[in-house]
Specification:
The protein is an alpha/beta fold. It has helices spanning about 1-10, 25-30, 35-40, 65-75, 85-95, 110-125, 140-150, 170-175, 180-195, 215-220, 235-250, 255-260, 265-270, 275-280, 280-285, 290-310, 330-335, 345-355, and strands spanning about 20-25, 45-50, 60-65, 80, 100-105, 130-135, 155-160, 205, 225-230. Helix 7 (about 140-150) links the parallel strand 6 and strand 7.
């Protein structure tokens, strides 16, 4: 499946822009997935994940196929219930339950092992190495940033516990960890301290519940000048799924009323359809699933909205976004972020103007 996914990305990559990043959890590392991706599939960028991505635990996937569940169990994953237990197999076949849970093992980090892993990946031919960590304790965040600095990691992603991946929402995802705003504020503090010492600070990415353009603006500004990217998952996935659902409703001739007011065909409903048709050409456009148009349209909306917000702030390039573009509405938020309360913004400048 990894080969299929990489090939799909390569076939549809436009103008050489972007990159395929292969993540690796505990089991994937043991099985040599990153090395396979680099040496066999030509992947240049790999990402080390601490824990189970943005989570300290809970890296679960639902499996509805018995054969696949057994294969994953044999590869070392924790699969619940045990798909090799004859009693479990019989219960599944008679419909007592419909799905298995696949859990990844919990990762434990030491500096020595991290250094060895980075060296091993570089030796295997990785051109870029990323690190992804989550809403762990402040000491773990400091550790991630320090190791990323010391061992030349290209990008560090810090993912807030937004309460929803896998089988979420559930109590563990909602209640564990440092909340995203506090987490990302700590990240800025730590990056500032490293930079003040003249140490290398990798490019930083924030993730965890970013969905709309105003949130992207805030994230980039909050972490400026260190934060270069905003990581997103649920928003784009939802956009693709909505596009797919609309496509199916068109094919079935059962378009919901709230969608039908925009039109009855893909070209009428998706405002970006004409742009995509012109970009791809008629033949390639016809092969495009409606989900892809949903995703493209969503990103166009984000881009246009972000440009509007930036123009309103008189910032005409992402490079110019800064913490000065933000203010907070409560004193508590000011204490957490280090940003000024809205009533204190431009205080000295206001005095200069009025007292002139």
């Amino acid at each position: 499946d990894l080969k299929r996914r990489v090939q799909l990305f390569k076939e549809n990559q436009r103008d050489g822009y972007g990159a395929i990043v292969v993540q690796s959890n505990v089991e994937g590392t043991r099985m040599g997935e990153p090395e396979y991706a680099i040496n066999t599939l030509g992947v240049e960028c790999v990402e080390i994940k601490w824990g189970q991505g943005a989570k300290n635990i809970g890296g679960e996937v639902k499996i509805s196929d018995l054969t696949k569940a057994q294969m994953l169990y044999e590869r070392g994953y924790v699969v619940l219930p045990n798909p090799t237990d004859p009693a479990v197999v019989r219960a599944f076949k008679r419909g007592a339950f419909k799905e298995f849970e696949r859990h990844s093992r919990v990762g434990m980090v030491t500096e020595e092992e991290f250094a060895k892993r980075v060296e091993s990946l570089r030796g295997a031919g990785a051109k870029y190495i990323f690190l992804k960590t989550g809403a762990y304790r402040p000491a773990a965040l400091a550790q991630a940033l320090s190791y990323a600095s010391k061992y030349g990691i290209d990008l560090l992603t810090v993912d807030g516990a937004g309460g929803g991946t896998g089988m979420s929402p559930w109590r563990m995802m909602n209640e564990w960890g440092v909340p995203a705003l506090e987490l990302h504020s700590l990240l800025y503090q730590y990056a500032t301290r490293l930079a003040a010492k003249g140490r290398y600070v990798p490019a930083l990415a924030l993730a965890g519940g970013f969905i709309l353009e105003d949130q992207i603006f805030k994230g980039l500004s909050l972490g400026a000048p260190f934060v270069k990217l905003i990581g997103m998952a649920r928003g784009p996935i939802a956009a693709a799924m909505v596009g797919k659902t609309i496509g199916r409703s068109i094919d079935a001739g059962q378009i919901p009323v709230y969608v039908e007011r925009f039109g009855t065909t893909v070209d009428e409903i998706f405002v970006t359809a004409h742009e995509v048709r012109e970009e791809l050409g008629e033949d390639e456009y016809k092969k495009l699933p409606a989900g892809a148009l949903g995703l493209y349209t969503y990103y166009e909306r984000l881009g246009q909205g972000l440009r509007q917000l930036m123009a309103g702030s008189r910032k005409f390039s992402l490079d110019f976004l800064s913490r000065d573009d933000l203010a907070v509405l409560t004193r508590d938020a000011a204490a957490v972020t280090g940003l000024p309360h809205v009533m204190d913004v431009d205080g000295e400048l206001v005095d200069d103007i009025l007292d002139a």
